[in-house]
Specification:
The structure is a single chain. This protein is mainly alpha-helical and about 325 residues long. Helix content is about 75%, strand content about 0%. The chain contains 19 helices and no strands. Helix 12 packs antiparallel against helix 13.
């Protein structure tokens, strides 16, 4: 009935607020119904199967119900598929007990109801904007929904609405780093650099490595590479396995004159599987500036198969050949 009454959402209040009185009442009613099903018709031929289905359903209902502990909706969605095996088989057993026209009518009604539910659920995923907007409306205290909606509005060019959606999330969770970084991106693209840097700094101060990295990037783009070093180093040291963080650190270190530090960061980046060829090129440039020209040609040889790097390679070769 709930599925047919309203479209599904990516977020529900129980995730943020915990179970309310109605949720607890539904849980208690379900438990009582389970006990009734355990007690009645114990000599029935299907009693053991009924117990197995009830046991299976409760094993999966406990983690996905949010009644004991809140978990992420994406995790709950995965496990609810396992939980549904029990109710589906239980309904099939109940219909099997019917006879003749009544069984046919029950089966047809169930098919129609499930078909409508499936179509509505599928329609909910046809528009990201509608999906995230519904998530924010249903559960306004979910910062991820507010950030996602803000991003969709930004891509649609509705900048003021994007900032309003982000503000809505920050009202529920002040200084939430992901939303602060979204605000910083929007303000930067709008041309408000000071506002963008202020929002990015709030996000970076949360301790989130991705926020620290993004703040370093904005500082570097604003011509404040010296201020960016500390934040870039923080992100790179916390996650040496992320090549982008190492390359950003190397960039700001080069701009501040710390070539040895830049070489170290680039060598860490080169150790990351699947790193882009640009890392070898940046390292070759650093080694050339350090005067270690003998180490440059082997790096350039690795890059010759990439046509996009042909011009930078020729430029470095001319510098090597210069007296």
């Amino acid at each position: 009935g709930t599925v047919l009454a309203r479209a599904p959402s990516l977020s529900y209040p129980i995730q943020s607020y915990g179970p309310n009185t109605l949720d607890l009442a539904i849980g208690a009613t379900t438990l009582m119904l389970t006990l009734v099903l355990v007690v009645v018709r114990r000599r029935s031929e299907t009693y053991r199967l009924r117990l197995a289905l009830l046991t299976w359903s409760w094993i999966w209902f406990v983690p996905i119900s949010h009644l004991i502990a809140p978990i992420h909706i994406l995790v709950a969605d995965r496990y609810v598929l396992l939980w549904l095996v029990g109710p589906c088989l239980g309904i099939a057993m109940a219909i099997e007990q019917l006879r003749g026209t009544l069984r046919l009518a029950a089966s047809g009604t169930l098919i129609c109801v499930l078909a409508i539910a499936c179509v509505r659920a599928q329609q909910a995923w046809t528009s990201s904007f509608e999906l995230f907007s519904r998530g924010c409306d249903v559960n306004p205290r979910d910062p991820q929904m507010c950030e996602n909606l803000s991003g969709e509005l930004e891509r649609a060019g509705a900048i003021d609405d994007a900032l309003a959606a982000a503000a809505r999330g920050l009202a529920a969770y002040p200084r939430e780093p992901h939303i602060e970084m979204r605000v910083a991106q929007i303000l930067w693209e709008r041309g408000d650099r000071e506002g963008a840097l202020a929002a990015a700094q709030l996000g970076a101060q949360s301790g989130l490595s991705s926020a620290a990295w993004r703040y370093a990037v904005l500082l570097q783009m604003a011509g404040r590479s010296r201020d960016a070093v500390w934040w870039a180093r923080r992100a790179a040291e916390f996650h040496p396995e992320i090549e982008t963080y190492q390359r950003t650190l190397a960039t700001v270190l080069v701009e501040t004159g710390d070539l040895a530090g830049a070489e170290s960061a680039l060598r860490v980046a080169l150790a990351v599987p699947g790193h882009p060829p640009i890392d070898e090129l940046r390292l070759a440039e650093v080694l050339l500036r350090l005067g270690r020209t003998s180490e440059v040609p082997p790096l350039l040889d690795k890059l010759r198969g990439d046509p996009a790097l042909a011009e930078p390679i020729k430029r470095l070769e001319r510098q090597l050949a210069a007296p």
